[in-house]
Amino acid sequence: MALRLYDTKTAAIRDFEPLQPGQVSLYYCGATVQGAPHVGHIRSGVVFDILTRWLEYTGYRVTSVRNVTDVDDKILQKAAASYAPGFEPSEDYPAEEPWFALAYRFEQVFNAAYGAVGVSRPTYEPRATGHITEMHALIQRLIDAGHAYPATDDSGDVYFDVRSWQRYGELTHQSVEDMQDAPDADPRGKRDRRDFALWKGDKPDDPTTAAWDSPWGRGRPGWHLECSAMSTKYLGSTFDIHGGGLDLRFPHHENELAQSAAAGDGFARFWLHNGMVTYEGEKMSKSIGNIITPEEMHAVARPVAVRYYLGQAHYRSQLDYKPGSLPEAEAAVERIENFLNRAGADYEYTAAEVMPDAFVAAMNDDLNVPAALAVLHETVRTGNSALDAGDDDAAVRHAAAVQAMITVLGLEELRAAEPAGAAAAEEALANLVQQQLDARAEAKAAKDFDTADALRSRLAAAGIEVEDTPQGATWSLTKGGV
RNA sequence: GGUGGGGUGGCCGAAUGGCGAGGCAACGGCCUGCAAAGCCGUGUACGCGGGUUCGAUUCCCGUCCCCACCUCCA
């Protein structure tokens, strides 16, 4: 069964066939680097990372591009505020920080947060500020085609002419007439209130570093323009998949589509949108203040559990965060981990040999990760049964299958969770623990259970968990701290 | 007002016109000196009202409620 994906534009699940056989071009919206990421941003990264991994497993060569919007009104506002009298510096926002320093700093914070949960770096991460030339070319094409115009006032803005583009609204299935008027929208020199800025004229107070010369005067790019310019530059005028959060459908993606299509580009063939992360039913967002940061999650669960949690729901579903969510994910992850550690790693199966058909079918069905996880857990259970029955061949084969599945889901670090290590300190620790375990084994052999239990308690107090198995006692560091 | 997505057992979360995905939690059993891990088993789930049907959680109509977007948003 071939891959099928839900496309927002056609509002239907369609067979996915790339433009070029064997190759997939994927563009997905990254961050406007005006602040630290929250969990919602990271979910989006995980979703498109899983998509990329699945496409690659399926045999495609994937070119993925995720933009960095490193100049916009909010970035400039925050930087400007840091120079204002009475500004109170905080951990996130120090005093007197130029806009480009702020943007670059948060770009790195974002990358660290993505990396912490195993989101692979895209093929390329272009920055808006590095593509002003391409944006100018696109604006010129739109003006030439009669779909953009310089502002009628002297602002130096250039707007997209929504009324000139019949298809405007096609992505989100809205007609311009039915759209609610934005009462706070500044009509400025617009022909229609819904016209949006392609280019924003320089204002007297703007930093000189945040303005570029253009045929329409000095200024900076409008928000939506960079994605059109950069996606088509690196992926072609028509490319396979455009992704992003559900909240980007309108206006961001609608406007991107309008710009590119009106300029004559085919643009994205599939539009994928991931669901929001909510907290007690409400969308996580800075303005509401119900943010959970990646740091807060990492404080209560290991990265692999955080990743499991963020990826476990279907990507189009809303994901509601609750205090118990992460411990639950941790428990599920440990179950998988325990099986892999029991089964050992002595197998040489290729992923294709052992990947369960049901897993493939689930992933091909619009990335049905919940169903895929069901297959994963069934495999763990069957593998555990095989171990209990002494059928090591079957167990090893199941372990290989689990390994193949968790690699696709980006949970492969589960495999490396064993306590033994090459580092000298770990070796020394292993020696000490083993001495304790030997002493305990002697006590147990002598039926001196008080001593045996005391030894186990002392290890537990030191953060070391002991488990008895038919092959003797094993130990591990207590998960998630003591 | 417009557009889109939902309401599933104690919780999370899928599929499906007919045999109750999967995980977490709970309970019972096996195993174990005990524990842990593991295995087996248990639970009268589909917002409400109609309709179609031999049969509806699933399809249709109505209705209530929730969420997202309508120019800051992952």
Automatic annotation (TrEMBL):
It is an enzyme of class 6 (ligase). GO terms for cellular component: cytosol. Binds 1 zinc ion per subunit. The keyword Phosphoprotein does not apply. Keywords: Aminoacyl-tRNA synthetase, ATP-binding, Cytoplasm, Ligase, Metal-binding, Nucleotide-binding, Protein biosynthesis, Zinc. One of its GO terms (biological process) is cysteinyl-tRNA aminoacylation. It comes from the Bacteria. Residues 196-215 are annotated as: Disordered. InterPro entries: Cys-tRNA-ligase, Cys-tRNA-synt_Ia_DALR, Cys-tRNA/MSH_ligase, CysS_C, Rossmann-like_a/b/a_fold, tRNA-synt_1_cat_dom, tRNAsynth_Ia_anticodon-bd. One of its GO terms (molecular function) is zinc ion binding. CDD domains: CysRS_core. It catalyses: tRNA(Cys) + L-cysteine + ATP = L-cysteinyl-tRNA(Cys) + AMP + diphosphate. Pfam families: CysS_C, DALR_2, tRNA-synt_1e. Residues 196-206 have a biased composition (Basic and acidic residues). Zn(2+) binds at residues 29, 227, 252, 256. A motif ('HIGH' region) lies at residues 31-41. HAMAP family: Cys_tRNA_synth. NCBIfam families: cysS. Monomer. This is Cysteine--tRNA ligase. The lineage of its organism: Bacteria, Bacillati, Actinomycetota, Actinomycetes, Micrococcales.
